[in-house]
Amino acid sequence: MYEELQGPLEAVATADFYRQLIDFAKSKVPVDVEWVVRYSPFAPPALLHCAKRVEIRTLVDLDMVNKLYDGGFYKMDPWFRYWTSYRAPGVVTAENLPSHQAKDDFYSALKPFLGDMDVIAMFLPAYGGNSITMFLEREERFNHEESVRLQEIYPIIRSLHEVHIKSLMTQAWLGAPAAKDSLLQLPAAVQILDMHHRTLYESEQWRAAKRQFPSFARAAETVRATGERRSTKMDFGTFHVDCMDFPDLWGRNLKVITFEHSQSVATPLDIEKAISEFEPVVWTPREREMVRLILWGNSNEKISEVLDIGVGTIRNHRKRIYDKLYISAERELFAMFLNSLIGEARVA
What we know:
Elements: H1 2-11, H2 17-26, E1 33-40, E2 43-52, H3 62-71, H4 78-86, E3 90-93, H5 100-114, E4 118-126, E5 130-138, H6 144-174, H7 178-183, E6 189-193, E7 199-202, H8 204-212, H9 216-223, E8 230-234, E9 237-246, E10 251-261, H10 271-277, H11 285-295, H12 300-307, H13 311-325, H14 330-347
Antiparallel strand pairs: 1-2, 1-5, 3-4, 4-5, 6-7, 6-10, 8-9, 9-10
Helix pairs in contact: 1-2, 2-6, 5-14, 11-13, 12-13
C-alpha cells in the first residue's frame, strides 16, 4: 500500500497533489477519463485537472467540453447541484445521484463531445463549504465491486486530502512560495482564530479584502460568533466558518473563517425549455421535433421508433437540417446549441 501512496504523499502541499491522488484511485479502478473540480456554494466551479487515457477508443474532446462548461454549461452540472444542495462527502455513483433527470440532461447534451460515459464521483470536503471532487469516467459500466473498492479506499483518500489542506495552510503561514499555486485550489482569503478568538493567521488575500471593503472588519467580527459550517452572506461576499485542528502549529479547536467575493452563480437550466427555444433558423414542425430528439441524444433508430418513420427518412431530415445550418455533423449541431446556452448564461 505504501508504494501506491508514495505519489500523493510526496505531492502533499504541491499543485500536483490531486493528480497524484486520482492516480491512486485509478490503480484500484481503471478509467478512461479523469477530472478534478472544485465546487463552491458561492462561486462557479473551477477545473483543477483533466486527462484521458491515450488509447481510449471514443473521441473525447476535452477542450470543447471544458470551454462549454466554463462558459456557462456548469449550470446543468448535476454534481455541482448535488454539492451545493447536500454538501455530503463520500463516493457517489451516477445511479444514486439524487437529481437523476438533471444527470440525463447534462450527459445527453455532452455526449457528442464526451461519448457515452459512466461516472463515479468522490467528494472531498474542504474549508469554506467547498469540495474538491474527483471524477472517474469510462465507457464500460462500473460494477458493484468497483464501487465498493472505491468506498473502501475513500477514508484513505480523504485523510490524505486533509493532510494536504493542513500542509498548505502551514506553508502559507510560513510564507513558503510553493504554497501559492496550490492555494488556488481553495479560497485563499483565510483567517484562523484560537479558542479565545485571538487571531493566529491572516492570509494576504484576507488583508487585501479588509483594505478593499470598508465594512469587512465589522462583518468578520460578527461572523466570529457563528457556529461551525455556517455561511453568512454580505453584499460584497460570503463568509464561512469551519473548525479545524492544527496541533503541531496552532493547537486544536480553531476557527477557520474564509471569505469569497460575490460572484454570479447561475441557476440551473430548464433544458426542455432551452431546446424548445433553440431556433437559429425557422424550423418546420417536423424539423423542430427532429432537432428536439437529436438534442436529447437519440440515435436515428430511436428517432425512427418515436416518430414511426423509416431510418432512411430520418437521415434525409437530418441532411436538410444540417444544410439549413450550413453544418455537416451532429457534433456541430450540439456545439451551436450549447453555444446558445453560453450566450444565455452570459446575459443572465
